[in-house]
């Protein structure tokens, strides 16, 4: 198993006329849930798009599963869920999965497994357009799980979900990581930080901290009982001082 699913050096991204990521160096290990946390607009989606290979204006070295980001061989090895649902409203959950399984060349039997994994068995025959927002985003997640990707890139997957479902999804992320998958999850709410094995804290296109939740709190001079939001603010204020 590859130790690092992602290796990035000197990553800069220009969108429009603005540089939105400013020379990032980092790795994302296999077998862990890495959280990408930071305020709205700091560049999380841009970073994820870069790893998936769909972002323009990229300079630097971005290696994903041993290949340059965007390489066609990676297509089946990365699962990506954006903030907008990527399933068809007029098809049922099962029909959507059957369609994407065919596009990806994945065994149709896998569709059942991924529907179970996201807990949509009871809604499998329901048209996606009539699902709740949370159910719809889980349908997108099921699509991303097809083909057992080695890297899962999830842009704010738990937004709008109730606490029980959030709990279930985080348990699933950790099960996948235990199986060797590199799971990258973004969030702009810091209260999910503690659920991650490791955190990348981002602000204005740079990382202000990289480590386990405990390491980051220590770096900020706080004890374990503190929350990551406090650590984030402490680090930001320290930099400004
Ligand atoms: N097409 C674009 N052209 C120019 N600038 C853009 C474009 N898309 C996004 N940006 C800018 O790039 C920056 C980073 O955006 P990005 O979507 O990566 O942030 P984010 O951290 O994912 O935010 P959110 O949590 O709100 O999704 C923002 O300041 C945004 O205004």
TrEMBL record:
Residues 6-229 form the ABC transporter domain. It comes from Nocardioides antri. GO terms for molecular function: ATP binding; ATP hydrolysis activity. InterPro entries: AAA+_ATPase (IPR003593), ABC_transporter-like_ATP-bd (IPR003439), ABC_transporter-like_CS (IPR017871), P-loop_NTPase (IPR027417). SUPFAM superfamilies: P-loop containing nucleoside triphosphate hydrolases. Keywords: ATP-binding, Nucleotide-binding. This is ABC transporter ATP-binding protein.
């Amino acid at each position: 198993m590859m130790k690092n699913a992602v290796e990035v050096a000197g990553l800069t991204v220009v969108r429009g006329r603005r540089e939105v990521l400013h020379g990032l160096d980092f790795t994302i290990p296999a077998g862990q849930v890495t959280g990408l946390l930071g305020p709205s607009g700091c560049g999380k989606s841009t970073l994820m798009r870069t790893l998936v290979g769909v972002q323009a204006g990229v300079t630097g070295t971005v290696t994903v599963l041993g290949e340059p980001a965007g390489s066609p061989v990676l297509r089946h090895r990365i699962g990506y869920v954006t903030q907008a649902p990527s399933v068809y409203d007029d098809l049922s959950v099962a029909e959507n999965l059957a369609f994407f399984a065919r596009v990806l060349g994945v065994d149709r039997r896998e569709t059942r497994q991924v529907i179970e994994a996201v807990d949509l068995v009871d809604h499998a025959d329901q048209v996606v357009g009539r699902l709740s927002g949370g159910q719809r985003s889980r349908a997108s997640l099921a699509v991303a799980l097809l083909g057992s990707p080695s890297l899962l890139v999830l842009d704010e997957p738990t937004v709008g979900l109730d606490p029980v479902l959030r709990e279930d999804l985080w348990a699933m992320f950790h099960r996948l990581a235990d199986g060797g998958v590199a799971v990258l999850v973004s969030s702009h709410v810091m209260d999910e930080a503690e659920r991650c094995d490791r955190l990348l804290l981002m602000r204005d296109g740079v990382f202000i901290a990289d480590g386990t939740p405990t390491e980051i709190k220590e770096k900020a001079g706080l004890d374990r009982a503190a929350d990551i939001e406090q650590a984030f603010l402490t680090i930001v204020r320290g930099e400004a001082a």
